Amino acid sequence: MSQTTLSFVHRFQPAAVTGLAPLLLLHGTGGDETDLLGLGERISPGAALLSPRGQVLEGGMPRFFRRLAEGVFDEADVRRRAADLATFVVEARDAYGVSAPVGIGFSNGANIAAAVLLLHPGVLAGAALLRAMVPLAEAPPAKLAGTPVLILSGARDPVVPAENAARLAAIYAEAGAEVRHETLPAGHGLTQDDISRVKIWLGR
Fold first, then answer.
1. What is the number of other CB atoms lying within 10 angstroms of the CB of residue 84?
2. Which of 32, 74, 188, 193 is catalytic?
3. Which run of H or E residues covers position 119?
4. In the annotation, is 188 catalytic?
5. Dist CA 136 CA 114 (whole Å)
């Protein structure tokens, strides 16, 4: 596992199997660049894994952008940090010789991936957004024709309202993405069901 000096602290694990899409692993609040490596290995064994650490600290816990309160985002910071992450992905593709990755984000990581999809189309080849919310109140117009997007919500999630997750799915559908939105019998945390469904989705 290598780590080149780029704009984000990160881990990179080269592909062990050819023909698999590289994964961009984006942790939730309090995670770091090692947090989702095991998840990546389980959902796509042998794929190249790129896992950055969020550059914002909240009470000492890494995040990918600032929030003003639970579920209330600093949207100017969302835009800035999404641009920074998009730049990092381009840097990493050049440094490691990989194609556009599929974003795999959980919670805060899912929200920054959601913003990158909308603000920087083409940077990600697609995304699985686990417990994601709408990242921007006014969604920018985006052209995402054919981009695969999986949204997995929790029926008992106290953080993400069902209406919010449904609105996110609608935003991507209107932009032309191939959206699959599923609600699982779960809370905000990840379950084995999430892992199984992401693995199946990637296999398609």
1. 18
2. 188
3. helix 108-119
4. yes
5. 9
User: Phi and psi of 71, rounded to 5°?
Assistant: 80, 5
- Could you identify the residue written with the tokens 């985006």? 142
Active site residue 99: no
pTM of this prediction exceeds 0.90: yes
Q: What's the distance, CA 168 to chain centroid?
A: 14
Report domain 10-203's class: alpha beta
The residue annotated as part of the active site, out of 107, 153, 181, 194, is 107
Residues in the chain: 204
Taking only the tens of pLDDT, the chain with its 204 residues reads 555 679 999 999 999 999 999 999 999 999 999 999 999 999 999 999 999 999 999 999 999 999 998 888 999 999 999 999 999 999 999 999 999 999 999 999 999 999 999 999 999 999 999 999 999 998 788 999 999 999 999 999 999 999 999 999 999 999 999 999 999 999 999 999 999 999 999 998
Consecutive H or E run containing 82: helix 75-96
